[in-house]
Design a protein that fits this description.
Strand content: 15-25%
Number of strands: 8
CATH architecture of the largest domain: Up-down Bundle
Structural class: alpha+beta
Distance between the termini: 48 Å
Strand order of the largest sheet: 2-5-7-8
Order of helices and strands: HEHHEEEEHHEHHHEEHH
Helix content: 55-70%
Radius of gyration: 45 Å
Number of domains: 2
CATH superfamily of the largest domain: Outer membrane efflux proteins (OEP)
């Protein structure tokens, strides 16, 4: 009895401690946390922001450019100017050196700290008035690329939701399995007590007690293994939700299936809502704009320009001229026309290649539509099959529950052996766990079908 109580405490004490600290994480809360915190979704949102910046008017080429320039130069010269052969004169008469009696040479001129400054400033504006409509179609292309990035982000969110619910439902399944195995352990524990009482009164042998203890040990191990799997699954969900790995919670095990007629309506609209099909259509629009951008190379480019400038030159005095200050203001307007009459055929090649890419994208769109239709039919067949299996498993649980209750009554009356009673218990346990598996498999198949129809993010779970 001491060993029995020890095993019971070992199994159930950690369970009670955990449940005292856990709170229920609903499906809606899990979705919100995934949308707010998941790393993959955050990265996808960043890509959308980049595409939005690229599609703004600031990146379109429609705005003019304005350039400001300024400059300053400074020069300083120290120089000596000689006049070889030149005679110093006064009033047109040579000056005679009184000592030598020779004409006096013209003296050298020293210029020290001859400074000159030059300052300039200008504003220049350029604007492309017409570029063959290339700028217009390129802007349209950037807008469509932004739309494509939002579709790619949506695909990332949908895949993350499927990943999140896969783990969430696994936690729910293991939670229900744990409860089932906990009940099995309680039954085995009670069975040991009955076997010990019966042995004390001489109604059975020691073998019945040993069999009951073996079964209880197996049930304890199965419960501990399930708890370990459950803890691992919770850590997996914490990773998807980007929260503390040690966070403890329970999940909602309630499952509600969408009516079949509503799913059929979704399937009828799948081609217009499926994210993969929408991405191919967006790429098709981008390729169409590429053709028009390439054709713009056949047309001329017309540009306008304007400038306003200021210059100041301050020159130093020289041996022959005095210094001067020269200040000027300049205003200019201009227009230009550039027409590449022949570029060696590169524009023609670009247009042809763009048309081929567009044709290939059309084929890809048809292929994706066909594949989506096939995947939907397969997913619908799988979903209906899993629903039927779930219904059968529900009935199987009901049957095995009745069988177990009768077996329990007969076992207590001594009409059947402990081995037969244990088999009835195992049959019920397997039926319950199989029903749990079928339930969550069917719900996950439903979500995958909704993803194909493009309605995964539009329904309440």
């Amino acid at each position: 009895m001491i060993r029995l109580r020890f095993i019971t405490l070992l199994v159930f004490l950690p369970i009670c401690t955990i449940f005292a600290q856990e709170k229920t994480l609903s499906k809606e809360e899990a979705v919100i946390k995934a949308l707010e915190n998941n790393y993959g979704i955050e990265i996808a949102k960043g890509q959308v922001d980049i595409a939005e910046n690229n599609a703004s008017i600031l990146n379109s080429g429609y705005l003019p450019t304005l350039t400001g320039t300024a400059g300053a130069d400074y020069n300083r010269d120290d120089s000596t100017i000689e006049f070889p052969g030149r005679i110093l004169t006064e009033d047109g008469v040579d000056v005679i050196d009184p000592i030598t009696g020779e004409p006096t040479p013209f003296p050298d001129t020293d210029i020290y700290k001859a400074e000159a400054q030059r300052y300039s400033a200008a504003l220049t504006a350029n604007y492309t008035l017409f570029d063959g409509m290339g700028r217009f179609y390129n802007y349209k292309k950037l807008k469509e690329q932004y739309n494509l990035s939002t579709l790619q982000a949506r695909e990332t969110i949908e895949n993350t939701m499927i990943q999140m619910f896969t783990v969430y439902f696994e936690i729910a399944r293991l939670t229900e399995n744990k409860n089932v195995q906990k009940q099995a352990l309680e039954i085995s524990t009670d069975r040991i007590q009955r076997a010990e009482y019966s042995f004390e009164y001489g109604q059975n042998t020691k073998l019945d007690i040993l069999n009951a203890q073996v079964d209880m040990t197996n049930d304890s191990i199965n419960l501990l293994n399930t708890e370990q799997q459950l803890a691992n699954a919770k850590r997996d969900l914490n990773v998807v939700l980007n929260q503390d790995l040690s966070s403890q919670f329970t999940v909602d095990t309630t499952i509600v299936f969408i009516p079949k007629f509503q799913i059929i309506e979704f399937m009828d609209q799948a081609i217009t809502n499926n994210v993969a099909v929408l991405q191919t259509e967006s790429n098709l629009s981008i390729n169409e704009y590429d053709i028009k951008v390439s054709k713009s190379g056949y047309l001329p480019t017309v540009g306008l320009s304007g400038s306003y400038g200021w210059n100041l030159n301050q020159s130093a005095a020289s041996a022959f001229f005095p210094g001067s200050n020269n200040e000027t203001y300049n205003f200019a307007l201009g227009a230009s026309l550039t027409w590449n009459l022949f570029d060696g055929g590169s524009t023609t090649v670009s247009v042809k290649n763009a048309k081929i890419t567009y044709a290939n994208q059309e084929l890809l769109r048809k292929q994706v539509e066909l594949e989506v239709s096939r995947d939907m039919q397969n997913a619908m067949a799988l979903y209906e099959n899993l629903l039927k299996i779930y219904q059968i498993q529900e009935q199987n649980v009901f049957t095995n529950q009745n069988n177990f209750e009768r077996s329990k009554e007969q076992f207590q009356l001594g009409s059947i052996t402990s081995i037969e009673f244990r088999q009835a218990q195992i049959n019920l346990l397997n039926a319950q766990t199989n029903k749990n598996l079928a339930k969550y498999d069917a719900k996950l198949a439903e979500l995958q079908l909704l993803q194909l129809t493009g309605q995964l993010l539009n329904i309440e779970l």
